[in-house]
Amino acid sequence: MDVSKAIRRRKSVRKYKADSVSKKHVDEIIEAARLAPSGNNAQPWRFVVVSDDKTKTLLKENNIFPQDFVYTSPTILVCCSDPKAYSKNLAGLDDDNKVRAVRDVSIASAFMVLRAEELGLSTCYVGWLKKEEIKPLLNIPKECVVPYILTLGYSDENPHETSRKDVSEILIKK
Ligand SMILES: Cc1cc2nc3c(=O)[nH]c(=O)nc-3n(C[C@H](O)[C@H](O)[C@H](O)COP(=O)(O)O)c2cc1C
């Protein structure tokens, strides 16, 4: 599948078949993130792959996600990023390191969702989660930010078309 097709096909999916996602596919998706560009090539992104029922139950018991569909997705990819990955703080010249960390993991995660699409898998970004409470449950270092997770699995719905702004609305006239 070419990139343009993956971009056009991708839609947020919130209902998944029970089929699990193979380790090979998860590895391919993590590999897409690994190859993404980042400021100073700092590669601040870190991921936790949650596919087992025991961990999903732990997350549910702690009410980490208000939306139930997250627990029913076969795999949850917890997207984290470490502001300490940058050797210099360029505050004043560039964004601060926390913003840089979120910026870079977002590029990596965009690669992930497109690779997932190519593999016939579907995803949904979920920013609605208890971002501090999730850390100790999954051994995520305190200094990391967790801007969102991605659900991952085989779609069991035809997601509705979401609207997009017209090009004229997103181009700033200079
Ligand atoms: C950073 C980010 C956070 C999001 N958080 C949520 C969320 O918490 N729950 C949810 O159901 N969808 C969430 N979404 C999905 C958006 O609602 C969705 O991408 C948007 O409506 C466009 O639809 P589409 O992805 O199908 O094109 C999030 C998307 C992004 C990019």
Walkthrough of the structure:
The protein has 174 residues and is an alpha+beta fold. It has one domain (3-170): NADH Oxidase, CATH 3.40.109. Helices cover 36% and strands 16% of the residues. The protein contains seven helices and four strands. The protein has helices at 3-9, 23-34, 53-61, 69-72, 97-118, 134-137, 167-170; strands at residues 45-50, 75-81, 122-126, 145-153. The chain has a four-stranded antiparallel sheet. α1 crosses α5 (97-118) and α2 (23-34) crosses α5. The longest helix has 22 residues, at 97-118. It binds flavin mononucleotide (FMN). Flavin mononucleotide is lined by residues 11-12, 14, 67, 124-128, 148, 159, 162.
Summary of the model, kept short:
This protein is 36% helix and 16% strand. The protein has 174 residues and is of the alpha+beta class.
Per-chain topology:
Layout: H1 3-9, H2 23-34, E1 45-50, H3 53-61, H4 69-72, E2 75-81, H5 97-118, E3 122-126, H6 134-137, E4 145-153, H7 167-170
Antiparallel strand pairs: 1-2, 2-4, 3-4
The structure holds flavin mononucleotide (FMN).
Flavin mononucleotide binds next to β3.
